[in-house]
Amino acid sequence: MENCLFCKIIRGEIPSGKVYEDENVYAFRDINPQAPVHVLVVPKKHFVSLSDIQSASDGELAACLRAVRLIAEQEKLENGYRLVSNCGPDACQSVPHLHFHILGGRQMADQMA
Ligand code: 5GP
Ligand code: ZN
């Protein structure tokens, strides 16, 4: 996707604070962190959101969750973390490339929204 912000980050056309990369996944620090650790985990293939994963392979999807586990370990989130994927306008998704927010390093609110 030529003009997608996260595709440009994955291609290195826009700088990012990379924390992890493998064949299927790229992960980087959120530019506007909502917690001491706020990492975005994105599949390298462009999908708009979880509503758009019909053509994603199980391997590509599982790679995102396996990356989350590795990054949580790397970021020393042994006390826990929250994983969020905003999907569509009701969830205020602002970047239309599937991504998972890892939020940690502090106590999260006990209400999710
Ligand atoms: P959403 O609102 O779609 O769930 O999350 C998009 C996230 O991308 C937001 O938390 C926002 O701060 C982050 N973001 C937007 N533009 C950039 C950018 O250019 N670089 C980085 N690292 N994060 C960005
Ligand atoms: Zn994209």
Architecture overview:
- With 113 residues, this protein is α+β, with helices and mostly antiparallel strands.
- The protein has a single domain (5-104), classed as HIT-like (HIT family, subunit A).
- It is built from two helices and five strands.
- It has helices spanning 5-10, 58-74, and strands spanning 18-21, 25-29, 37-43, 81-84, 100-104.
- A five-stranded antiparallel beta sheet has the order 1-2-3-5-4, with helices on one face.
- The longest helix has 17 residues, at 58-74.
- It is globular and about 35 Å long.
- Residues 5, 14, 16, 28-32, 40, 86, 92-95 line the site of guanosine-5'-monophosphate (5GP).
Question: What are the SSEs and their pairings?
Answer:
Blueprint: H1 5-10, E1 18-21, E2 25-29, E3 37-43, H2 58-74, E4 81-84, E5 100-104
Antiparallel strand pairs: 1-2, 2-3, 3-5, 4-5
The structure holds guanosine-5'-monophosphate and zinc ion (ZN).
Zinc ion is lined by residues 1, 4, 6-7, 46, 97.
Instruction: Determine the CATH topology.
Output: HIT family, subunit A
CATH class: Alpha Beta
Overall body shape: globular
Order of helices and strands: HEEEHEE
**What would the average pLDDT be, to the nearest integer?**
98
Biggest β-sheet: count, sense, barrel?
Answer: 5 strands, antiparallel
* Low-pLDDT segments: none
Superfamily at the CATH H level? HIT-like
Ligands, deduplicated? guanosine-5'-monophosphate, zinc ion
Strand content: 15-25%
| Total of domains | 1
Which key phrases capture this entry?
5 strands, binds guanosine-5'-monophosphate, globular, alpha+beta, 113 residues, five-stranded antiparallel β-sheet, binds zinc ion
